[in-house]
Amino acid sequence: MQNNFNYNSGMISYMQKIIQQMQANNQIGTARNYQSAMRRFSSFIGKSDISFKQITPELISRYQTHLQTNGIVPNTISFYLRILRATYNRAIDEYNLSDGHPFRHAFTGNERTVKRAISLTEIKRIRELNLQHNNLQWARDFFMFLFYCRGMSPIDAAFLKKSNVKNNIISYRRHKTLQQLHINIEPPIKEIIDRYSKYSSPYLLPIIKSPVNTRKQYDSALRNINKQLKIIGKLANLAKPLTTYVSRHSWATLAKNKNIPINVISDALGHNSILTTQIYLDTIDNTVIDEANRLIINELQNAKSIS
């Protein structure tokens, strides 16, 4: 670290150096967590760096609100804020800086997770809604694409490129864990892909429109999609708000209810958890995962409509 480090030094650059130290010490998982938190915070501030002096309670409060309005669940918000707080406190201790206590009002605890899964009949109801507005139709397509693709993460779907599709398989690396995943393209997945393949963009879905400021484009698009999904949820008479996260949670819950092994579900979702995936099998035959996805899609196709 530089000897002239002071209150006006950059927090992002300090985080980058911490990440480099972690990588050198083979703390790969922790380094990825810090990278995830750093990218999220950098996207929020909208510039390459920010001084420790600018890290105020007001800024952290606005950041927390920003995460909430983007559909980030409380425990994930706490995860991001705890990493920022740890970085801030480390710099304060290491360089004997004045502590402005910017995290004193931030939520950095753990909230009991509220179940966000919806039933298969509710998902069918969403799929069969007669939506007239193009924005609503697109939001539903995106939601269903995530569900059909084994509860794919929205950011992974947004950054998929047409080059990720080969031999009727979508192959990609998760943004969060860098884990390589392969998804067999079932008929309803292909239907959605074909609907948007007319666009000349290299991306598979119409979220990223240009190679500049891709994260801002994604954040903006996700905000709009989640707004439309809340409208769709009301039209479908759902008891809980509909967000992109619901598709992921619902797929996992439905898979579990079909007695699909937890380790298969964990692998299908691209989790990088020692407590789940690594404790079972190092690798799982992808045909087992595709069969799990086929079971869920087929049940949805055959579910009775509820008016």
Give a brief rundown of this model.
This protein is mainly alpha-helical and 307 residues long. The chain has helices spanning 11-24, 28-45, 57-69, 74-95, 120-127, 134-148, 154-158, 187-196, 214-235, 244-257, 262-269, 286-302; strands at 165-166, 169-173, 180-184.
Q: In percent terms, what proportion of residues is strand? A: under 5%
Order of helices and strands: HHHHHHHEEEHHHHH
Enumerate the spans where pLDDT stays under 50 for 5 or more consecutive residues. Answer: 274-284
Distance between the termini: 64 Å
Number of strands: 3
User: What fraction, in percent, of the residue positions are helical?
Assistant: 40-55%
Largest sheet: 3 strands, antiparallel
Query: Helical segment tally?
Result: 12
Which strand order do you get reading across the main beta sheet? Answer: 1-2-3
Outline type: elongated
User: What integer value in Å does the Rg equal?
Assistant: 21 Å
| Class inferred from helices and paired strands | mainly alpha
* Mean pLDDT metric: 85
Explain what you see.
54% of the residues lie in helices and 4% in strands. The protein is elongated. With 307 residues, it is mainly α. A three-stranded antiparallel beta sheet has the order 1-2-3. A hairpin with a 2-residue loop joins strand 1 (165-166) and strand 2 (169-173). Mean pLDDT is 85; it is low at 274-284. It has twelve helices and three strands, in the order H-H-H-H-H-H-H-E-E-E-H-H-H-H-H. Helix 2 (28-45) crosses helix 4, helix 6 crosses helix 9 and helix 10 (244-257) runs antiparallel to helix 11 (262-269). The termini are far apart.
